[in-house]
Amino acid sequence: MSDPHDVARYIFVNDENELRSGWRVLLFFIILVTVATLLSVLGIVLATLFPSIAFVFTIPPGPDYSGSPARLVHLCVSTAMNLLAAVIASIVCASLLERRRFGSVGFKLHRGWSRDFAFGSLLGAASLAIAVGIAASVGAVTFDLQTREFGLLLRGFLVTLAFFVIAGANEELIFRGFPFQALVHNLRGPRAVAITSLIFGLAHASNPEASVFSTINTILAGIWLGIAYLMTRSLWLATALHWSWNFAMVFIFGLPVSGLTTLGAFSWLRGSPGEPGWISGGGYGPEAGVAATLALILSTLAIWKSGLFAASQEMLNAIRHGKAQPDFVKVTPESEGSAVTDHDGASESGGSTMSNP
Q1: What is the block-wise mean pLDDT of the chain (357 residues), using blocks of 10 residues?
Q2: What residue spans define the domains of the chain?
Q3: SS3 track for the chain
């Protein structure tokens, strides 16, 4: 391969005549950062032109979020802008690099999406409750009632619900969306899960009170969410697990989420992590304790082995790239153009069949 053109093509282009998955992932993050920066600049311009709404785009002063509606608005708007940047990057990359629609990245209203989201929301909250229950059973965490006033509880419920749904969707688009799916398509599921889960763990390593244990558990959470995508080939289940785990941790139990206590004032209970810290997670919250390790393993096995979750044919069709099929999907020589055989030997007359990457 002495021809520079052939060398360049080998470096950048795969056998499907697409950019190699690593380059596609890199382009996604370049577009994501560019769009997020442009949205941030737009916010600064709007805040300068219209000082009355400056609090929406620049964080207002104040000690916490509970007594400052302006700070709450800023928090939710900034999170929504991050989600918008992820949506735009996903649309651009899915359509231009893989010739598929945004819905195929994971938020298509396919048959069974609401069931996946509902079950995932229950399972995510229940998984967190198991972790907290284990810690509480040995006295590693205690609780006090923070408020029983209905109005305050309703406000806390709505604020934490809105924030964690938006934040969960944003993180899933980034970590289990287009970049993860590009790796799945070309490297297969296990490698994609390993790579993205490691990055997911390291992305939280700089959070307050982070530790080696918290990073390991966050990597496990990445595996948990990655398998949720692979089982359904959509993001509804993974997003539901993600938001409900965080929501239960903050609104119900009043515990830090990944070391952050931003919305702690809106919780029903006030949790106090104690000793031993290797069970409770200490100041980082349950995600730095062995109780969460056990809960994540159990929940992952439930998703993988229970038989409750499966990819719909609609999503299996949607995730196919618009270019040439992978090399493990071959047209049989006996009936070229009329039958397709996948790498497991299955065939379908009159069409094409592609197994899950």
Answers
A1: 76 89 96 97 92 82 69 89 97 96 95 96 98 96 92 92 96 97 95 97 94 96 98 98 97 94 91 93 95 97 95 95 56 38 34 36
A2: 8-324, 325-357
A3: CCCHHHHHHHHHECCCCCECHHHHHHHHHHHHHHHHHHHHHHHHHHHHHCHHHHHHHCCCCCCCCCCCHHHHHHHHHHHHHHHHHHHHHHHHHHHHHCCCCHHHHCCCCCCCHHHHHHHHHHHHHHHHHHHHHHHHHCCCEEEEECCCCHHHHHHHHHHHHHHHHHHHHHHHHHHCCHHHHHHHHHHCHHHHHHHHHHHHHHHCCCCCCCCHHHHHHHHHHHHHHHHHHHHHCCCHHHHHHHHHHHHHHHHHCCCCECCECCCHHHCCEEEEECCCHHHHCHHHCHHHCHHHHHHHHHHHHHHHHCCCCCCCHHHHHHCCCCCCCCCCCEECHHHCCCEEECCCCCEEECCCCCCCC
Q: What is the Cα–Cα distance from 83 to 75, expressed in whole angstroms?
A: 12
The CA-atom distances, in angstroms, between 191 and each of 42, 194, 240, 273, 357 are 38, 5, 24, 35, 11
